[in-house]
């Protein structure tokens, strides 16, 4: 049995699969989706007779997306997988959106996933079909106004962002708005599972596009503290 978890977007999703069949699916949308779904998902799965102890592999989304949500999901899955001694692999969360693009254009050879980058920007995560496998190609940030130009060579654009944020984009390819993660898409990630703890630690590094920015902490009001 495989466990899949992604908390990189506003919709936190968890699923259990076996032999390609989804046995359990849970999701929660909202700002605190990850904190709500994680404590309850194991209990709900147990109520349906599905024991987490029988999971042999974890696939967890590692972004791009919410900084906090992504780290919460990785830490939670890592804690459980370590406790049970199961395998764990970090996957590009954008794999969970490819299905929408493929359904829109079954002949697509290239797909761009648009994540909300805030500040009127998007994080563009691109994929290309190479020898029958969808493979990560590039990832970059651009202004919303630049989307049409920057993605003109892609067959389909997909985004979890609301329509009002992308309504003015005049892309040459179909643009699909407001999609929720199709968590089973993480299985499309062709990368092998890490072989040892050091590989796993490296594999679980969240995908950040912007460099980290140091914010100096506020000084205390009481100088004696």
Describe the structure concisely.
The protein is an alpha/beta fold. It has helices at residues 33-47, 67-84, 98-104, 147-150, 163-166, 197-203; strands at residues 2-6, 11-18, 21-29, 57-61, 87-91, 110-116, 121-130, 133-143, 156-158, 175-176.
Summarize the structure in words.
The protein has helices at residues 33-47, 67-84, 98-104, 147-150, 163-166, 197-203; strands at 2-6, 11-18, 21-29, 57-61, 87-91, 110-116, 121-130, 133-143, 156-158, 175-176. The protein has 2 domains: 2-93 and 181-203, ATPase, nucleotide binding domain (Nucleotidyltransferase, domain 5, 2-Layer Sandwich), CATH 3.30.420.40; 94-176, ATPase, nucleotide binding domain (Nucleotidyltransferase, domain 5), CATH 3.30.420. The protein is globular, with a radius of gyration of 19 Å. The protein is α/β, with parallel strands linked by helices. The chain has 6 helices and 10 strands; from the N terminus they run βββαβαβαβββαβαβα.
Secondary-structure blueprint:
Blueprint (H helix, E strand, L loop, with lengths): L1 E5 L4 E8 L2 E9 L3 H15 L9 E5 L5 H18 L2 E5 L6 H7 L5 E7 L4 E10 L2 E11 L3 H4 L5 E3 L4 H4 L8 E2 L20 H7 L22
Parallel strand pairs: 1-4, 4-5, 6-9, 9-10
Antiparallel strand pairs: 1-2, 2-3, 6-7, 7-8
Helix pairs in contact: 1-2
What would CATH call the class of the largest domain? Alpha Beta
Count of spatially separate domains: 2
Amount of helix: 10-25%
CATH superfamily of the largest domain: ATPase, nucleotide binding domain
Rounded to the nearest angstrom, the distance between the terminal CA atoms is: 52 Å
Overall outline: globular
Helix-strand makeup class: alpha/beta
The helix/strand order is: EEEHEHEHEEEHEHEH
Q: Enumerate the strands of the largest sheet in spatial order, edge to edge or round the barrel.
A: 3-2-1-4-5
Examine the coordinates and then state which fold CATH places here, giving the name of the CATH topology of the largest domain: Nucleotidyltransferase, domain 5
Low-confidence stretches: none
Q: Which architecture name of the largest domain does CATH use?
A: 2-Layer Sandwich
The percent range for strand residues is: 25-35%
